[in-house]
Amino acid sequence: MSRATVRIPAPLRTFTGGAAEVAAEGATVGDILRSLSEAHPELKRQILNDEDEVRDFVNIFVDDKNIRSLDALASPVVEGAIIHIVPAVAGGGS
Question: Beta 82-87 vs 2-7: how paired, if at all?
């Protein structure tokens, strides 16, 4: 079981009581997200779909690696890792 810091982007901080970072524990990214969801239940729906997979418009990084290029939610987390949740940003039209 590893302890990690999860960085919460500004648009999702309303689901963490305004916190920019939260601590969570788990052996994998999926474990970390489950731990985070227990503490902040409304946040889960913003990150995971009904099949408990990462939503298409959300990227999650463990340190500087996108979990989509690793083992997705099964990606291991080491002690002290920094997990970044990065929702896609839509641009304006011309």
Answer: parallel
Read off the pLDDT of residues 32-88 as tens digits, 9 standing for 90 and up.
999 999 999 999 999 999 999 999 999 999 999 999 999 999 999 999 999 999 998
* Residue 25 C-alpha from the chain's centroid: 12
pLDDT at 94 over 80: no
Contact by Cβ (8 Å): 53, 67: no
Residues paired with residue 86 on neighbouring β-strands, in sequence order: 59
CB 11 within 8 A of CB 88: no
Domains of the chain plus CATH, in order, are 2-87 (3.10.20.30)
Backbone angles phi, psi at 74, to 5 degrees: -85, 0
Give the tokens for residue 5.
């810091």
8 Å CB contact between 16 and 43: yes
